[in-house]
Amino acid sequence: MSTKATTTLNDVNMEAVAGLAGKIQEAPDVADTKWLAQVKWNGGFRSEAKIRDFSPLSSDEPPALGGTDNGPNPVEQVLAALGNCLAVGYAANATVAGIKINDLTIDLEGDLDLHTFLGLNEGNAGYSNISVKVNIDSNATPEQLEALHSKVTNSSPVGHTLSRAVPLNIELS
Amino acid sequence: MSTKATTTLNDVNMEAVAGLAGKIQEAPDVADTKWLAQVKWNGGFRSEAKIRDFSPLSSDEPPALGGTDNGPNPVEQVLAALGNCLAVGYAANATVAGIKINDLTIDLEGDLDLHTFLGLNEGNAGYSNISVKVNIDSNATPEQLEALHSKVTNSSPVGHTLSRAVPLNIELS
Question: What is the pTM of this model?
Answer without folding.
Answer: 0.95
